[in-house]
Design brief:
13 helices, single chain, three-stranded mixed beta sheet, alpha+beta, about 300 residues, 2 domains, 8 strands, about 45% helix
Length: about 300
């Protein structure tokens, strides 16, 4: 039996802001009625772009109702920029905590808010701020969970198993066909986390093959040609695109078909950097160099 806080009970029994905002400035819908969890969130802004009204409708459990209710309370009076800073951990914290198996309810609330803000900017015909952009590639079709949502949950909460991922995002809780993909994402994220913080030793520059290619691969014919092609793409096509947005990319090393890179400038601080690396950089490298290359970010 799961243990719930008094705040969860209160917002479940007496949910705030239930319904639909009339003539909303933004509407977001996530989840699926067919699979047991769905949420619709709408909001209205005043002349200063502050949220003056926020309402929700949800089809789900008590935790979903409570999470949606507290979220609408949390974003009232905030600008969109301020509301965008609200995380699913903030939602759970305001509720006095949620059982690990119910954390996906807070994630769904955060995704609905994000979807509503994206809808608002699209209605205005304006570009969506990059911190609200996601790859949108679905990994769990039963519950409409994207790869970015799973990656973020793994990285932020140090999840270690498919069961953990299901508890936090609900991905994998349906037919189970995505379990293999979830395991792959877990391996990918943990490999990335192990690489983060690694720095190249400072000092006298070393030859290209020693600095970018693992010594065990040094004798393998063709490795240097791959590095040359990657470096050329970073200096030209890929680099130009990133520099146009005030950022850039550096090759750190190449090992076992993995391209370790470091983002610089605006790209280093961008919340959409994962989408840039996987949705653009990796795709370009696979198209122009080799189809099995994988891009991994190294942060310093």
């Amino acid at each position: 039996m799961w243990k719930y806080s008094e705040e969860v009970y209160e917002h479940f029994m007496n949910p705030r802001n239930v319904g639909d905002v009339e003539e909303p400035d933004g509407v977001g819908e996530v989840g699926s009625m067919a699979c047991g969890d769905a949420l619709r969130l709408s909001f209205k802004l005043d002349e200063e772009d502050r949220i003056t009204e926020a309402k929700f409708r949800t089809f789900g459990c008590g935790s979903a109702i409570a999470s949606s209710s507290i979220l609408t309370e949390m974003i009232l009076g905030k600008t969109l920029e301020e509301a965008a800073q609200v995380t699913n951990e903030d939602i759970a914290r305001e509720l006095g905590g949620l059982p690990r198996e119910k954390m996906h309810c807070s994630v769904m609330g955060r995704e609905a808010l994000e979807a509503a803000m994206i809808d608002h900017y699209k209605r205005l015909g304006r570009g969506v701020p990059c911190n609200l952009l996601t790859q949108g590639i679905m990994v769990c079709h039963c519950y409409s969970v994207t790869r970015d949502t799973v990656r973020n949950a793994i990285m932020q909460n140090k999840l270690k198993s498919v069961e953990d991922v299901t508890n936090f995002t609900k991905a994998g809780g349906g037919c189970g066909d995505c379990h293999h993909d979830l395991k792959h994402l877990l391996d990918e994220c943990w490999e990335k986390m192990e690489q983060e913080g690694e720095e190249e030793p400072a000092g006298t520059p070393v030859p290209l093959e020693a600095s970018f290619v693992d010594t065990s691969d040094k004798e393998q014919q063709g490795q240097q040609e791959i590095v040359r092609q990657i470096t050329e793409l970073f200096a030209n096509d890929i680099g130009v695109a990133l520099r146009n947005d005030g950022g850039d990319i550096e090759l750190v090393r190449f090992r076992d078909n993995k391209v370790f890179v470091r983002l610089t400038g605006n790209c280093a601080a961008c919340l959409a950097s994962e989408a840039t690396l996987k949705g653009y950089v990796e795709e370009q490298l696979r198209e122009h160099v080799r189809a099995d290359l994988e891009v991994i970010e190294v942060k310093t």
